[in-house]
Amino acid sequence: MIELRDACKVYGDGHVALYGLSLHIAAGTTVALLGPSGCGKTTTLKLINRLAVPTSGSVFVDGRDVSRSDAIQLRRGIGYVVQEAGLFPHLNARENVEVVPRLLGWPAPRRRERAAELFGVVGLDIGLHGERYPAELSGGQRQRVGLARALAADPPIVLMDEPFGALDPLTRRRLQHEFVALKARLHKTVVLVTHDVEEAFLLADRVAVLSDGRLVQCGTPAEIRAAPASDFVASFLGLM
Predict the structure, then answer these.
(1) Which of 18, 82, 132, 166 has the greatest CB tally within 10 Å of its CB?
(2) 13 exposure class (CB count in 10 Å sphere: 0-12, 13-18, 19+)
Protein backbone atom coordinates (compact mmCIF):
# COMPACT_ATOMS: atom_id res chain seq x y z
CA MET A 1 0.00 0.00 0.00
CA ILE A 2 1.19 3.50 -0.88
CA GLU A 3 -0.23 6.68 0.59
CA LEU A 4 0.63 10.31 -0.05
CA ARG A 5 -0.79 12.72 2.53
CA ASP A 6 -0.92 16.40 1.56
CA ALA A 7 2.42 16.03 -0.23
CA CYS A 8 3.87 19.28 -1.57
CA LYS A 9 7.07 19.71 -3.53
CA VAL A 10 8.73 23.06 -4.16
CA TYR A 11 12.08 23.04 -5.94
CA GLY A 12 14.95 25.40 -5.15
CA ASP A 13 14.11 27.71 -8.05
CA GLY A 14 10.64 28.28 -6.59
CA HIS A 15 8.85 25.96 -9.02
CA VAL A 16 5.93 24.25 -7.29
CA ALA A 17 5.61 20.70 -8.65
CA LEU A 18 2.91 19.46 -6.28
CA TYR A 19 0.25 21.18 -4.21
CA GLY A 20 -1.01 19.07 -1.30
CA LEU A 21 -1.40 15.78 -3.14
CA SER A 22 -3.29 13.08 -1.24
CA LEU A 23 -3.55 9.70 -2.91
CA HIS A 24 -4.13 6.14 -1.68
CA ILE A 25 -2.87 3.23 -3.79
CA ALA A 26 -4.09 -0.16 -2.59
CA ALA A 27 -1.76 -3.15 -2.62
CA GLY A 28 -1.97 -5.23 -5.79
CA THR A 29 -3.54 -2.50 -7.93
CA THR A 30 -2.25 -0.54 -10.89
CA VAL A 31 -2.71 3.23 -10.71
CA ALA A 32 -1.90 5.51 -13.63
CA LEU A 33 -0.81 9.10 -13.02
CA LEU A 34 -2.25 10.85 -16.05
CA GLY A 35 -1.84 14.42 -17.21
CA PRO A 36 0.05 16.81 -19.47
CA SER A 37 3.79 17.42 -19.25
CA GLY A 38 4.82 19.32 -16.13
CA CYS A 39 1.73 18.43 -14.10
CA GLY A 40 3.68 16.63 -11.33
CA LYS A 41 3.45 12.98 -12.42
CA THR A 42 7.14 12.13 -12.33
CA THR A 43 7.66 14.13 -9.14
CA THR A 44 4.95 12.02 -7.50
CA LEU A 45 6.75 8.87 -8.60
CA LYS A 46 10.06 10.17 -7.22
CA LEU A 47 8.48 10.92 -3.84
CA ILE A 48 7.50 7.27 -3.48
CA ASN A 49 11.07 5.95 -3.74
CA ARG A 50 12.73 9.02 -2.18
CA LEU A 51 14.43 10.27 -5.30
CA ALA A 52 12.69 13.47 -4.22
CA VAL A 53 11.68 14.58 -0.74
CA PRO A 54 8.38 16.39 -0.08
CA THR A 55 8.66 19.99 1.07
CA SER A 56 5.70 19.25 3.33
CA GLY A 57 3.31 16.38 3.84
CA SER A 58 4.19 12.69 4.06
CA VAL A 59 4.60 9.59 1.93
CA PHE A 60 4.01 6.11 3.34
CA VAL A 61 4.90 2.74 1.83
CA ASP A 62 3.39 -0.25 3.65
CA GLY A 63 2.60 2.01 6.59
CA ARG A 64 6.15 3.32 6.98
CA ASP A 65 7.06 6.96 6.46
CA VAL A 66 9.62 6.87 3.64
CA SER A 67 11.45 9.87 5.14
CA ARG A 68 12.36 7.63 8.08
CA SER A 69 13.33 4.65 5.95
CA ASP A 70 16.80 3.84 4.66
CA ALA A 71 16.70 5.13 1.08
CA ILE A 72 18.83 2.32 -0.36
CA GLN A 73 16.82 -0.41 1.32
CA LEU A 74 13.59 1.29 0.25
CA ARG A 75 14.64 1.42 -3.40
CA ARG A 76 15.82 -2.17 -3.44
CA GLY A 77 12.24 -3.15 -2.61
CA ILE A 78 10.80 -1.07 -5.45
CA GLY A 79 11.21 -1.86 -9.14
CA TYR A 80 11.71 1.12 -11.42
CA VAL A 81 11.09 1.15 -15.18
CA VAL A 82 11.87 4.26 -17.21
CA GLN A 83 11.48 5.32 -20.83
CA GLU A 84 14.19 3.83 -23.07
CA ALA A 85 14.70 1.19 -20.32
CA GLY A 86 17.75 2.98 -18.82
CA LEU A 87 19.95 -0.11 -19.14
CA PHE A 88 23.64 -0.05 -18.23
CA PRO A 89 25.39 0.00 -21.64
CA HIS A 90 28.51 -1.81 -20.41
CA LEU A 91 26.50 -4.80 -19.13
CA ASN A 92 24.80 -7.37 -21.33
CA ALA A 93 21.07 -7.98 -21.02
CA ARG A 94 21.40 -10.84 -18.53
CA GLU A 95 23.83 -8.87 -16.37
CA ASN A 96 21.44 -5.90 -16.37
CA VAL A 97 18.67 -8.13 -15.02
CA GLU A 98 21.01 -9.49 -12.34
CA VAL A 99 22.04 -6.05 -11.01
CA VAL A 100 19.75 -5.84 -7.97
CA PRO A 101 20.05 -9.53 -7.00
CA ARG A 102 23.85 -9.06 -7.14
CA LEU A 103 23.59 -6.04 -4.82
CA LEU A 104 21.44 -8.12 -2.48
CA GLY A 105 24.13 -10.79 -2.34
CA TRP A 106 22.36 -13.54 -4.25
CA PRO A 107 24.75 -16.35 -5.31
CA ALA A 108 25.50 -16.58 -9.03
CA PRO A 109 23.42 -19.74 -9.71
CA ARG A 110 20.35 -18.15 -8.15
CA ARG A 111 20.87 -14.92 -10.12
CA ARG A 112 21.17 -16.80 -13.40
CA GLU A 113 18.12 -18.91 -12.64
CA ARG A 114 16.09 -15.78 -11.86
CA ALA A 115 17.29 -14.02 -15.02
CA ALA A 116 16.34 -17.02 -17.17
CA GLU A 117 12.91 -17.12 -15.53
CA LEU A 118 12.27 -13.42 -16.15
CA PHE A 119 13.47 -13.51 -19.74
CA GLY A 120 10.72 -16.06 -20.29
CA VAL A 121 8.18 -13.92 -18.44
CA VAL A 122 8.82 -10.90 -20.69
CA GLY A 123 8.97 -12.95 -23.86
CA LEU A 124 12.72 -13.04 -24.57
CA ASP A 125 15.03 -15.98 -25.20
CA ILE A 126 17.92 -15.79 -22.74
CA GLY A 127 20.07 -17.91 -25.03
CA LEU A 128 19.48 -15.54 -27.91
CA HIS A 129 19.25 -12.17 -26.15
CA GLY A 130 20.93 -12.63 -22.76
CA GLU A 131 24.50 -12.04 -23.91
CA ARG A 132 23.65 -9.08 -26.14
CA TYR A 133 24.44 -5.56 -25.04
CA PRO A 134 21.74 -2.86 -25.02
CA ALA A 135 23.02 -1.34 -28.27
CA GLU A 136 22.49 -4.72 -29.94
CA LEU A 137 18.81 -4.92 -28.92
CA SER A 138 15.77 -3.29 -30.46
CA GLY A 139 13.83 -0.66 -28.52
CA GLY A 140 11.12 -3.16 -27.64
CA GLN A 141 13.69 -5.71 -26.50
CA ARG A 142 15.45 -3.14 -24.32
CA GLN A 143 12.14 -2.22 -22.72
CA ARG A 144 11.44 -5.88 -21.96
CA VAL A 145 14.87 -6.23 -20.36
CA GLY A 146 14.16 -3.08 -18.32
CA LEU A 147 10.92 -4.60 -17.05
CA ALA A 148 12.67 -7.88 -16.23
CA ARG A 149 15.34 -5.94 -14.30
CA ALA A 150 12.66 -4.13 -12.30
CA LEU A 151 11.10 -7.48 -11.35
CA ALA A 152 14.37 -9.29 -10.63
CA ALA A 153 14.26 -9.18 -6.81
CA ASP A 154 10.47 -9.73 -6.81
CA PRO A 155 9.63 -6.29 -5.37
CA PRO A 156 6.04 -5.76 -4.24
CA ILE A 157 5.98 -2.31 -5.88
CA VAL A 158 6.92 -1.34 -9.43
CA LEU A 159 7.14 2.29 -10.59
CA MET A 160 6.93 2.92 -14.35
CA ASP A 161 7.76 6.31 -15.85
CA GLU A 162 6.51 6.54 -19.46
CA PRO A 163 7.78 2.97 -19.99
CA PHE A 164 6.49 2.62 -23.56
CA GLY A 165 6.70 6.24 -24.68
CA ALA A 166 9.74 5.92 -26.95
CA LEU A 167 8.50 2.87 -28.86
CA ASP A 168 6.89 2.73 -32.27
CA PRO A 169 3.06 2.43 -32.13
CA LEU A 170 2.94 -1.27 -33.04
CA THR A 171 5.57 -2.35 -30.50
CA ARG A 172 4.04 -0.07 -27.89
CA ARG A 173 0.58 -1.59 -28.29
CA ARG A 174 1.99 -5.14 -28.19
CA LEU A 175 3.90 -4.47 -24.96
CA GLN A 176 0.90 -2.74 -23.39
CA HIS A 177 -1.28 -5.80 -23.93
CA GLU A 178 1.49 -8.10 -22.70
CA PHE A 179 1.77 -5.94 -19.58
CA VAL A 180 -1.97 -6.33 -18.90
CA ALA A 181 -1.57 -10.12 -18.97
CA LEU A 182 1.61 -9.95 -16.91
CA LYS A 183 0.19 -7.82 -14.11
CA ALA A 184 -2.71 -10.22 -13.71
CA ARG A 185 -0.17 -12.99 -13.05
CA LEU A 186 2.24 -11.12 -10.80
CA HIS A 187 -0.14 -9.18 -8.49
CA LYS A 188 2.23 -6.24 -8.02
CA THR A 189 1.38 -2.74 -6.89
CA VAL A 190 2.16 -0.64 -9.96
CA VAL A 191 2.29 3.14 -10.31
CA LEU A 192 2.45 4.19 -13.95
CA VAL A 193 3.21 7.67 -15.30
CA THR A 194 1.75 8.51 -18.70
CA HIS A 195 0.24 11.37 -20.69
CA ASP A 196 -1.49 8.88 -23.00
CA VAL A 197 -5.19 8.57 -22.10
CA GLU A 198 -5.66 5.32 -24.01
CA GLU A 199 -2.64 3.76 -22.29
CA ALA A 200 -3.80 4.81 -18.83
CA PHE A 201 -7.29 3.42 -19.35
CA LEU A 202 -5.98 0.16 -20.80
CA LEU A 203 -3.35 -0.59 -18.16
CA ALA A 204 -4.69 0.84 -14.89
CA ASP A 205 -7.31 -0.21 -12.37
CA ARG A 206 -7.58 3.41 -11.24
CA VAL A 207 -6.48 6.66 -12.87
CA ALA A 208 -5.34 9.79 -11.05
CA VAL A 209 -5.63 12.86 -13.28
CA LEU A 210 -3.22 15.69 -12.42
CA SER A 211 -3.08 19.28 -13.62
CA ASP A 212 -0.60 21.96 -12.54
CA GLY A 213 0.55 19.93 -9.56
CA ARG A 214 -2.93 19.19 -8.25
CA LEU A 215 -4.99 16.03 -8.21
CA VAL A 216 -8.11 16.81 -10.24
CA GLN A 217 -9.86 13.43 -10.22
CA CYS A 218 -9.20 9.83 -9.23
CA GLY A 219 -11.34 6.85 -10.11
CA THR A 220 -11.71 3.84 -12.34
CA PRO A 221 -11.52 4.45 -16.09
CA ALA A 222 -15.28 3.83 -16.32
CA GLU A 223 -16.02 6.34 -13.54
CA ILE A 224 -13.88 9.04 -15.09
CA ARG A 225 -15.31 8.51 -18.57
CA ALA A 226 -18.86 8.59 -17.22
CA ALA A 227 -18.43 11.66 -15.01
CA PRO A 228 -15.33 13.81 -15.66
CA ALA A 229 -14.82 16.11 -12.68
CA SER A 230 -14.09 19.27 -14.67
CA ASP A 231 -13.89 20.77 -18.14
CA PHE A 232 -10.14 20.16 -18.02
CA VAL A 233 -10.63 16.42 -17.47
CA ALA A 234 -13.28 16.20 -20.18
CA SER A 235 -11.10 18.11 -22.60
CA PHE A 236 -7.97 16.09 -21.81
CA LEU A 237 -9.89 12.86 -22.32
CA GLY A 238 -11.25 14.16 -25.64
CA LEU A 239 -14.84 14.18 -24.39
CA MET A 240 -15.50 17.81 -25.36
Answers:
(1) 18
(2) exposed
70-105 confidence digits (pLDDT tens) = 888 888 889 988 876 689 999 999 999 999 899 889
Q: Which helix (H) or strand (E) holds 127?
A: helix 126-129
- Specify whether 100 is located in the same domain as 64: no
Cβ atoms < 10 Å from Cβ of 167: 20
Please give the average per-residue pLDDT across 18-28, as a whole number.
Answer: 94
CA 135 – CA 214 distance, rounded (Å): 39
Tens-digit pLDDT profile for residues 125-161 = 999 999 999 999 988 899 889 989 988 988 999 999 9
Does 141 map to a domain? yes
Q: Which domain range does residue 30 map to?
A: 2-77+156-236
- Asked if residue 130 and residue 18 are part of one domain, the reply reads no
Q: In this structure, are 68 and 165 located in the same domain?
A: yes
On whether both 126 and 137 belong to a single domain, the answer is: yes
The DSSP output letter for 205 is S
- Region of residue 199 (phi > 0: left; psi between -120 and 50: alpha; otherwise: beta): alpha
Q: How far apart are CA 66 and CA 61, in angstroms?
A: 7
